[in-house]
Please model this.
Amino acid sequence: MDRTQTFARLLELIEPFNKKGVALSETTSFANDLELDSLTVMDLVANIEDEWDINMPLNILPDLETIGQLADAVLKLKG
Model:
């Protein structure tokens, strides 16, 4: 799965958490645009881990501010 496919699948996983109907893009911010709280972020992380059979270290989460950064992290963790 390449980055384009990974990004597209991430959009599908994020959409149920997009309560404000924000247009999702590479630069969409989880905190500022989507206003996700920590519990919602953990639910999303669990879905991502299940989807790609990866473990996301909690210490990288503060550095992942946008959907694009998340896509890059998922690809890196998949190896």
Notes: The mean pLDDT is 96. The chain is about 50% helix and 0% strand.
